[in-house]
Amino acid sequence: MLVGIPTRGIELTKVLEKELFSRTVLRIRKEIIDPIFYRDDQNRVVTRLIQAADISTRIEKKNSFNR
Q1: The pLDDT value given to residue 66
Q2: CA 66 to CA 36: how far, in whole Å?
Q3: 10 Å Cβ neighbour count for 16?
Q4: What is the mean pLDDT of residues 31-36?
Q5: Residues 1, 59: contact at Cβ < 8 Å?
Q6: If 4 and its partner were Cys, which of 13, 38, 43, 57 is the partner (CB 3.0–4.6 Å)?
Q7: pLDDT of residue 39
Q8: Comparing C-alpha atoms, which of 31, 39, 25 is closest to residue 10?
């Protein structure tokens, strides 16, 4: 699973997924998570619109060997 962080991380997951597919012929899931709620400097920086987390795959109790 590839998890992209807005804004550039989402595009990076698309590029990585295509590259991994071309090398392995395996489809890798792409998910999105926005860490903006966890920033401690929100008062000092210009914020953008928050993107909802989009993780449809359960990740509890998973490791790199579970598929």
Answers
A1: 47
A2: 29
A3: 14
A4: 80
A5: yes
A6: 13
A7: 61
A8: 31
